[in-house]
Amino acid sequence: MMHQKMMNSHMTFxxxxxxxxxxxxxxxxxxxxxxxxxxxxxLSHTRFINAVTNDVVAGLMQTVMYGVRIGLAYLxxxxxxxxxxxxxxxxxxxxxxxxxxxxxxxxxxxxLTICPNSNYMDHxxxxx
Length: 128
Known about the structure:
By secondary structure, the protein is mostly helical. It is built from three helices and no strands.
């Protein structure tokens, strides 16, 4: 009679081992998650299409940018689901810093416009 072994597999992110190298690696991981979530938040509020762009090209560009933003957001979600508090805090800090850069610092007061369409309302209900 053959015994079949059950394969127990699970996906985990390894955030380093003990030692000096792993601390540096972990800090690089935290900075990477912070920057990735900052990028996702900035992409959520930025428009790259001007008014003179062809409608078909504009639609394709919006679709591609939406796909990139959602893909990066899901990547941040997967990293947070690793149940590492440091990664969670880095992601929250990155999203908060992205919001601060785009909304909180008053970028428009310096003559820059992130979203040139004044009727644009983002998913949080803020109107530009």
